[in-house]
Amino acid sequence: MPNNHLSKNIIELYRKYAREWVALRGEWLFEKVWLDRMLALLPDQANVLDLGCGSGKPLATYLIEQGCAITGVDSSELMLQMARANFPEQMWLQADMRQFNLAQKFDAILAWDSFFHLTQDDQRQMFAQFARHAKQGTILMFTSGPAHGEAIGELFGEPLYHASLAPEEYRHLLAQYGFDVLNMVVEDPECTGHTVWLAQKGSQ
């Protein structure tokens, strides 16, 4: 039986357990190896769109320290309150990543440990969102599952939905929307087993 009905609970779970999640997540930056790969491709003072930004710690913290300007999007107002308290000079927006539309194109788009909570159909539709906020040269980085399917994890005793497309479909969607894959590692042992995509918007 499909589990995608559980995807409807994601926003509420991260609202309900915002403070607990931030405490659990901590400040260990296991993503640094990939953030550095992204940063190496960006101009100075790059504008970064962070989808599912949470409290801004630790990912946005590191990017801000490297001179980036952050526009963070999250559905949890409590998470955003923490982000605004941490970094009042940055832009923090309460919105559903599937539906917002900013009149701005970014140097980088980051969807780390957020995109994979969407259903497979919503993930397919997100590539139009990525393209809408990208210009030629924009870097896109996101995490996915390693293969087509759904997986149910746990967040403070409640079911936590994840889904993934097959790598071949991600490659097809990226190409369809004008992104070239620069790097992709399945279950990267240097990044706590995350499957990571790094792509760049071409001229089309």
From TrEMBL:
GO terms, molecular function: methyltransferase activity
SUPFAM superfamilies, A to Z: S-adenosyl-L-methionine-dependent methyltransferases
One of the GO biological process terms: methylation
Record Gene3D superfamilies: Vaccinia Virus protein VP39 (3.40.50.150)
This protein's UniProt keywords: Methyltransferase, Transferase
Top-rank taxon: Bacteria
Residue ranges annotated for the Methyltransferase domain, each copy included: 48-137
Name recorded for this polypeptide: Methyltransferase domain-containing protein
